[in-house]
Amino acid sequence: MRRSSIVPFAVLDGTLIRTDRVAADRPFFSGKHHCHGMNLQVISGPAGQLLWVSGALPGSVHDMKAAWIWGIEDELAAAGLPALADKGYQGAAHAKTPYKGKNKPESQKDANRAHAKLRAPGERANAQLKAWKILTRLRCCPWRAGQIAKAILVLQVYEVKAG
After folding, report:
1. Rounded to 5 degrees, what angle do the CA atoms 72, 50, 46 make?
2. Phi, psi (5° rounding) for residue 47?
3. What digits encode the pLDDT tens for the residues 121-141?
4. Which residues pair with 52 in a beta bridge?
5. Which 8-state DSSP code applies to residue 15?
6. Looking at residue 61, what DSSP letter applies?
7. Rg of the chain over CA atoms, in angstroms?
């Protein structure tokens, strides 16, 4: 199946699934969110449909490192599927990210606005994932977060097809 028959581009984003870990579990602590959790990488289509969910990594793992661990860039490149990502993926060879820095020229600001408009509907996939009550605060073993998210992906696809 050719990539153009599926989606024209993908949106790559990471999300934190909060857990009820104690302070002694330092690897699970996300400094960005100031809470314990598990890092999941999500690939979605331009309309916000979930396409793929990674397994769980500790919340302290940066999005770019998580993408590298799961081999997301290589898979997207092999599929010939362009990806849009946020500034957390700066330096990724295959994912297109917005320009960074202050005092950008107007052309870069316009490019960032266009990038955000294309990526915004794809960000809805994280909201769909987190809308499932089981992921509001994970109380089981944190390493099960990836399995739970993958099960939700299957249910979400089934719900969309049944429709």
Report:
1. 85
2. -95, 5
3. 888 888 888 888 887 777 777
4. 43
5. E
6. S
7. 16
Which DSSP string do the residues of 93-159 spell out, in sequence order?
A: SSEE----SSS--HHHHHHHHHHHHHHHHHHHHHHHHHTSGGGSSB-S-GGGHHHHHHHHHHHHHHH
Task: Please name every residue paired with 57 in a beta bridge, in sequence order, or none if there are none.
Answer: 39
For the record, the structure tokens of 102 come out as 């202050």
Q: What residue type is 3 in one-letter code? A: R
pLDDT in tens, 30-73: 778 788 888 899 999 998 888 999 998 988 889 999 999 999 99
Q: How many helices (H) and strands (E) does the chain have?
A: 4, 7
Say which amino acid occupies 35. C
Model confidence, pTM = 0.84
